[in-house]
């Protein structure tokens, strides 16, 4: 409960209800209303969504407090009985509705607060138990989507299990196509926020002029064309999780505002005068080395520290080749079923080709190649793998005599993809499709690496 809680009093005796209100307000509770009947109580519950309800059994009208309690059980709103009725049959009926406490009138002020404290503790304990049970159920589903049994994959799954139940900020680092969003989804689904949304933001795809209004929203009339109030991504993610993909592409001005959100737990809408409190867990991801970005002045050090409380490094597919077999068959079954074809496996030669390739586009590239071969295959198995020749160039250190930097490798790989796509970036057969990334992200990477769109195959 926020502060001590928002309480609805359902009591048909005005003096008793008013005394309750004064006692509770003095102790720091908020009172959202007093109802003397079930009909009034339903309206106030709908309007105020109280944290707790203090409920008399005998009320005005045709319905009793026990009738309302049955509805509260369904809505999962915790309640306590306060009644002078100690009839055995009535007490047994009340017990069946699973209240968090029962206080007999008349009562002392001290007894009321002791009962409330006990009830709050029982409710919190029960919530923790339910969240753990939900996490166990989600565990079997979402972690099954992380395919592989290699040591690196097992270690990744253990890290997810460790960090998911907390509210700690997570920074996921990995090359394009390694499954950063999938890992973020698993962390969210195994967290206590899983019943709230995970809002995904691709920082590289946001136009520079719209970043602030997209993330934080704007008020009506904040600028030309703002004909109505807009809720930003952080407000949409309130009580849930926000996933900031490609965080390394965020411009400096937006980094400053993001840092303030992380520090103050509040946002300011564009054109707004008052800050808005938000309760959001932040998971960020990047394919860049943010330490290098910090050293070169492109990323704020204080923001980096805020985001990287729990850093996770996703291995490239070439570092977990023992998982290729399981991944390839997973995608084979997925696309065979999707396209209604009877393909059951790979020939030994085809699997050897998959194992021999270094997969610069990682799991996403493997998925696209398997999907393409499922569509092209005319038999019951995939006999050979056709990988674009531009992707097969030897980039090993032995061929050049020295180890290339990540930036050099990335630049060369993008140029190769542009040549393979005949200079085309977006659309079918374009470099973005070949690399398995959004076109806007590729444009951003090309700009940072100084690559012009003039390469032809």
From TrEMBL:
User: Which GO terms fall under biological process for this protein?
Assistant: phosphorelay signal transduction system; regulation of DNA-templated transcription
Q: Does the keyword Transcription apply?
A: yes
Residue ranges annotated as coiled coil are none
InterPro entries cross-referenced by the UniProt entry: AAA+_ATPase, AAA_lid_NorR, CheY-like_superfamily, Homeodomain-like_sf, HTH_Fis, P-loop_NTPase, Sig_transdc_resp-reg_receiver, Sigma_54_int
* UniProt keyword list: Activator, ATP-binding, DNA-binding, Nucleotide-binding, Phosphoprotein, Transcription, Transcription regulation
- Entry-linked Pfam families: AAA_lid_14, HTH_8, Response_reg, Sigma54_activat
- The 4-aspartylphosphate modification is found at 56
Sigma-54 factor interaction domain sequence ranges: 146-375
Question: Which SUPFAM superfamilies does the UniProt record give?
Answer: CheY-like, Homeodomain-like, P-loop containing nucleoside triphosphate hydrolases
Keyword Disulfide bond appears in the UniProt entry: no
For molecular function, the Gene Ontology terms on record are: ATP binding; sequence-specific DNA binding
Give every Response regulatory domain span.
6-120
Please state what the protein is called: Sigma-54-dependent Fis family transcriptional regulator
